[in-house]
Amino acid sequence: MSADTKIAELLTELHQLIKQTQEERSRSEHNLLNIQKTHERMQTENKTSPYYRTKLRGLYTTAKADAEAECSILRHALDKIAEIKSLLEERRIAAKMAGVYSDNDPPRKTMRRGVLMTLLQQSAMTLPLWIGKPGDSPPPLCGAMPASSDYVAKQGDKVAARVKAVDGDEQWILAEVVSYSHSTNKYEVDDIDEEGKERHTLSRRRIIPLPQWKANPETDPEALFSKDQLVLALYPQTTCFYRALIHTPPHRPQDDYSVLFEDTSYADGYSPPLNVAQRYVVACKENKKK
Fold first, then answer.
1. CA 19 and chain centroid, separation
2. Beta bridge partners of 190
3. Parallel, antiparallel, or unpaired: how do β-strands 240-248 and 170-181 relate?
4. HSE-CB for 129 with a 13 A CA cutoff
5. Is the pLDDT of residue 289 over 60?
6. How far apart are CA 219 and CA 130, in angstroms?
7. What is the C-alpha separation between 276 and 54, in angstroms, rounded?
8. pTM above 0.85, yes or no
9. Is 269 helix (H, G, I), strand (E, B) or coil?
10. Using an 8 Å Cβ cutoff, are 282 and 210 in contact?
11. Residues with Cβ < 8 Å from 73, sequence gap 6 or more?
């Protein structure tokens, strides 16, 4: 089965799940309305009789079951979306690999800076939110949660990579994983900024995987960097990571971090607060300020 056919099937299944969600929600509205009316009658009569207690117990039991059923459908829908995104990513990687050229081939087209910045912003906005079940802990690579010690980034994954610049200085850039060699424990990564058209071979210690899920500040605040914590953050409108302090963590799932970048041109050594998406904030491996 081709990727296009599989994606079409998954989209059809997703459409059905969305319809089921709406049907489940419409069905449960009648029960929720009964709960509201029962409470209103209790307030009017100013008493809580055994009859009302029994009735409410039954209504709330039904409401809980309805909510769990809707939640199950929504989780199934999220799984379908994840499958679709994975297939689209596989197709993108295959197209990229098919376009690999030799020195005798014409050079590939360079992506315009504005287009690249828009794609990076879209990637940050569409990063899935981690939604665990009651009692679940945020997994590795959810928000500020580090990767496991044996984690190996997959082909196509975006990472922060420490490379040598033209002037000999080292810098952290946004890169895409091309491959990983288990024999040498080294990655091959491409600079995400195609203007550079550079491929780097780097050891694992020079690679920091980016988050694969956003952390929800309302349910998993421990999976976020805290105020004044030192991090590496992608400077707005660039493809480079720089050291920064967390000024304000996100308050809502859709919020960005507010960070203070190290900047010697300011009296206190830090820039004014700038917003950076969860997708592009990672732990800083260097603890001491240079």
1. 26
2. 176, 199
3. antiparallel
4. 14
5. no
6. 10
7. 51
8. no
9. coil
10. yes
11. 17, 20, 21, 24
